[in-house]
């Protein structure tokens, strides 16, 4: 696919030509241009392998909640999605139930002309065969696509129990059939409990998993099972996606720095972190953090964890 020249590259070339020709550039103008070029927002997005899928995912990804699931916010949502893709985001996560389909509809408004730029993930919260097949068709229609890259069980242990997936006519059967048909490429399981997710991936060959992960241990039941979880995902070479990085917003309300919270989660052996976005400036701040990411040391992580959990 042919890509437009990056604006930062264009500006650098233009400045070089201008100065090379002996033309003068005012100090104020040059300073602003230099500051623009030095903004991490214009750097490439770091990527990591999404497990064995063969896809290199940007370490920051867009979640389908916040503005993207609120009725009456279509224009704002479409602007956020387009801005995210323009800045190098290449993975979007949503779900059938977000905004009762609103999130998928908004994302579909962009997918109808930018689908080839995105690894697209959505979820079914129905754990039966028939219910999942119905939800899958709804999702395809809303997302305006004919394939889903990653189809996931939504919140195992919450919306549905793991035991139901082992029975006949389960959502796993639907996933298998859809994958054989080629309308989904990969399958995944999501949830908050590292124990339940570990049990799920230990007994079934999922490609990816989505887990709650944040410095406070907020919305993270069975956090003592994280070592087991990461051992299993490494052994199975699974893509690991982190969610609720900001503790569902609670850590921001307590005054913690969003950049530090994102850095903390990205310092784990994950593929990417998804964040729901309310406004463009928040999106850009998160992407700056990702594009200038520096691994936290164990001591740094321990200090932040201690502070967030106190």
General description of the model:
The structure is a single chain. The chain has 310 residues and is of the alpha/beta class. It folds into 2 domains: 8-38; 45-309, NADP-dependent oxidoreductase domain (TIM Barrel), CATH 3.20.20.100. Helices cover 45% and strands 17% of the residues. The protein is built from 13 helices and 10 strands. The protein has helices at 7-20, 27-38, 74-86, 102-114, 129-143, 162-165, 171-181, 194-202, 226-235, 250-253, 258-266, 280-291, 298-309; strands spanning 47-49, 56-58, 60-66, 91-93, 119-124, 148-153, 184-191, 208-212, 239-243, 272-277. Strands 3-4-5-6-7-8-9-10 form an 8-stranded parallel β-barrel, surrounded by 7 helices. The chain has a two-stranded antiparallel sheet with strand order 1-2. Strand 4 (91-93), helix 4 and strand 5 (119-124) form a beta-alpha-beta unit. The longest helix has 15 residues, at 129-143.
Question: Under the CATH scheme, which class of the largest domain?
Answer: Alpha Beta
Annotated CATH architecture of the largest domain: Alpha-Beta Barrel
User: Helix and strand succession?
Assistant: HHEEEHEHEHEHHEHEHEHHEHH
**In total, how many domains does the architecture comprise?**
2
Number of DSSP-assigned strands: 10
- Give the radius of gyration: 21 Å
């Amino acid at each position: 696919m042919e890509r437009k020249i990056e604006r930062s590259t264009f500006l650098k070339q233009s400045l070089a030509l201008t100065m090379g020709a002996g033309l003068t550039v005012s100090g104020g103008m040059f300073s602003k241009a230099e500051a623009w070029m030095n903004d991490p927002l214009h750097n490439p997005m770091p990527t990591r392998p999404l497990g064995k899928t063969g896809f290199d995912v940007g370490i920051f990804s867009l979640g389908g909640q916040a503005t993207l699931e609120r009725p009456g916010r279509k224009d704002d949502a479409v602007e956020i999605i387009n801005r995210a893709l323009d800045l190098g985001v290449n993975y979007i996560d949503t779900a059938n139930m977000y905004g009762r389909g609103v999130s998928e509809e908004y994302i579909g408004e962009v997918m109808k002309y930018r689908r080839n730029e995105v690894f697209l993930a959505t979820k079914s919260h129905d754990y039966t065969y028939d219910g999942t097949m119905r939800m899958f068709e709804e999702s395809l229609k809303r997302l305006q696509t004919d394939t889903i890259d990653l189809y996931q069980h939504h919140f195992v242990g919450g919306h549905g129990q793991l035991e139901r997936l082992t029975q006949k006519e389960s959502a796993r059967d639907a996933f298998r059939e859809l994958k054989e048909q080629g309308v989904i490429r990969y399958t995944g399981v999501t949830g908050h409990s590292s124990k339940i997710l570990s049990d799920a991936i230990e007994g079934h060959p999922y490609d990816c998993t989505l887990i709650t992960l944040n410095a406070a241990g907020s919305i993270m039941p069975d956090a003592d099972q994280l070592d087991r979880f990461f051992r299993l995902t490494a052994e199975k070479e699974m893509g690991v996606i982190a969610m609720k990085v900001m503790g569902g917003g609670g850590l921001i309300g307590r005054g913690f720095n969003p950049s530090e919270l994102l850095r903390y989660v990205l310092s784990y052996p994950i593929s990417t972190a998804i964040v729901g976005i309310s406004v463009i400036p928040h999106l850009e701040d998160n992407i700056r953090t990702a594009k200038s990411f520096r691994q936290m040391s164990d001591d740094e992580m321990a200090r932040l964890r201690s502070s967030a959990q106190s």
